[in-house]
Amino acid sequence: MNYYCTLFDSNYLTRGLALYDSLVRSGDDFRIIIFCFDELCFQILGKLNLDRATLVPLTQFETEELKKVKMQRTTAEYCWTCTPQVIDYSLVQFGLPEVTYLDADLYFFQSAEPLFRELGEGGNSVLITEHRYTPRYDQSAASGKYCVQFITFKADQAGRTVLDWWRDRCMEWCYARYEDGKFGDQKYLDDWTTRFQGVHVLAHLGGGVAPWNVQQYRVGQGPSVNGIPVVFYHFHHVTWNRNKSFDLGGYELSQEVILEVYLPYLDQLEKVLQRVRTVQPDFEKGMIQPSHTAAGLMKHIRRRLFGAYNVIRR
Questions:
Q1: Are the C-beta atoms of 56 and 36 separated by less than 8 Å?
Q2: pLDDT higher than 80, residue 237
């Protein structure tokens, strides 16, 4: 069985449910621990009776130490701070042999077994994924070489050593700015392969396809990249507008990428919303009003000029 954990609030509820559904369709045997970062999220998920999910309310997870840190950080910064904490909680409180943290805006198109097989064959204890930036989008100097999106820790000594170090660093400093070689929870990963034993960097090209790297691949049906099935895609910066449109973000995306990768995901988000509305009819969390300001207009003009105007109307 594959054990996962993730965290999100009601603003990311539809994305988190799409992630859950994609894991179900992958055919893998799994259990996912969902840390609900507000009460509405916990209530709705509870009513939906997700048979492969364990729900942890914020009141159960949040320690006094975390509450103090929370007052000093933005919502995003606090979620980043909590990433190693939810991994630690999952391993300890549920007695798991290993667990994989997933960002809520991931979506699985294939079984994750090839990724776990790669970790097992090397006898390592931690699995991390590179951003693999397309050169023109390379932000590794500021944001880090690796992406905290899919990260596995075994509950052995090597895994615990890395996790404990990361958890403590994030409690000390975790902000959405570059400072002294740090950025959020992510830049800390840069030297793990030399600082620690047992850290493996995923080689499988289908793990970690994202809008910042998809331009360098030949995208085909399935979807696939360079003939390799996409295991999961990171739907970073997809915005759901209240005017029934989706903004896919400011990266250049080919028609093949939109057709093979994004449209199936948007279909799933809409299905998830209808399911949520069976238990919460007025639910609109995570949907925003499109900006009609001068700044918003200029953003769209710039995106059109650079081939990155990716607004899909439904």
A1: yes
A2: yes
**Placement of tokens 């002294």 in the chain:** 180
Residue 94 φ/ψ, nearest 5 degrees: -105, 0
Nearest CA among 191, 182, 313 for reference residue 247: 313
Instruction: Give mean pLDDT, residues 270-276.
Output: 97
Q: Name the class of domain 2-235.
A: alpha beta
> Which residue ranges make up each domain of the chain?
2-235
Which pair of tokens denotes residue 260?
A: 């093979």
Q: How far apart are CA 114 and CA 94, in angstroms?
A: 25
**pLDDT number for residue 306:** 67
Q: CA 305, CA 294: separation in Å to the nearest integer?
A: 17
b/e sequence 51-76, b meaning 16+ C-beta within 10 Å:
eebebbbbeebbeeeeeebeeebeee
Q: Looking up tokens 């009513």, which residue turns up?
A: 47
Question: pTM of the prediction?
Answer: 0.95
- In which region does residue 30 sit, left (phi positive, over 0), alpha (psi from -120 to 50) or beta (all else)? beta
User: Would you call the peptide bond into 57 cis, given omega within 30 degrees of 0 as the criterion?
Assistant: no
Nearest Cα residue to 115 out of 150, 76, 69: 150
Tens of pLDDT along 94-109? 999 999 999 999 999 9
The angle formed by the CA atoms of residues 133, 135 and 139, to the nearest 5 degrees, is 55
Write out pLDDT tens, residues 278-307: 999 999 999 987 766 777 777 777 777 767
